[in-house]
Amino acid sequence: MGSGDIVNTMLNYGYSLLEAEFLRAINTVDLDAHVGFLHEMTPSKNRLAYDLQEPFRFLVDLAVINLVESGAMESKDFIRTENYNLRLKPTGARKIVNEFSNKLNKKVSYQGKKSTWSYVIFLKIQELAH
Predict the structure, then answer these.
(1) The domain that contains 36 carries what CATH number?
(2) What confidence score (pLDDT) does residue 125 get?
(3) How many domains does the chain contain in total?
(4) Confidence of residue 65 (pLDDT cuts 50, 70, 90)
(5) Which helix H or strand E contains 110, and what residues bound it?
(6) Residue 29, in any domain of the structure
(7) Of 103, 95, 98, whose CA–CA distance to 9 is shortest?
(8) Hey, which of 17, 28, 50, 66 would disulfide with 39, CB 3.0 to 4.6 Å?
(9) Are 30 and 36 contacting, i.e. CB atoms less than 8 angstroms apart?
(10) Beta bridge partner(s), residue 94
C-alpha cells in the first residue's frame, strides 16, 4: 500500500499473490491463518501466511526482476492516484500474475522428486500441520 515507484508497486502486488497462494494451502490442510509465530498479533491479519511466505518471497522478487529487465512493464500499466501513489492497471496486474504463475509452476528438485514451487509450498504447510 502507498507505493510511489514502479518496482515497489509490483512487489507489493506480487507479495499479495504469494499470500493468496499460502492462504490456499493453509486452508487446504485446515490450519488457522490468523495464528502465527513471528508477525504481530493483529486482528484480521493472516499472520501464519505472512510467517510462512518469508522464505519464498524470492519467487516474487524474481518475477518482478524478469518483468523489469525484459521491459515488459510500461507506464501505461500503472496509474497515479490523487495521493500520488502508484497502482496497477489490469494490464500490469495481468503481467505480474502471469510471470508469478510461471515461477510457481516451475519444476524444482524437492525430496528427490521434481515438483512445482506451488506443490513445495503445499508440502511445507502439510509438514507444519503434522
Answers:
(1) 1.20.120.920
(2) 93
(3) 1
(4) very high
(5) strand 107-110
(6) yes
(7) 95
(8) 50
(9) no
(10) none
What's the CA gap between 25 and 124, in Å, rounded?
A: 9
Residues in the chain: 130
Is 40 inside a domain boundary?
A: yes
Contacts 24+ apart (CB under 8 A), 86-89: 86/3, 86/4, 86/5, 86/6, 86/9, 87/9, 88/9, 88/10, 88/13
* pLDDT (average), residues 34-61: 79
Q: Taking a C-beta distance cutoff of 8 angstroms, is the pair 62, 99 a contact?
A: no
- The three-state secondary structure class of 107 is strand
The whole domain housing 12 covers: 6-129
The angle formed by the CA atoms of residues 108, 24 and 33, to the nearest 5 degrees, is: 115
In a domain, 1, yes or no: no
Q: What whole-number distance in Å separates Cα of residue 18 and Cα of residue 56?
A: 8
The fraction of the chain above a pLDDT of 70, given in percent, is 91
DSSP state of 124: H
pTM above 0.85, yes or no: yes
- Please give the Cα distance from 105 to 107 (Å, whole number): 6
The predicted structure's pLDDT at residue 3: 79
CA 85 to chain centre: 20
100 domain residue, yes or no: yes
**Strand partners of residue 108:** 115
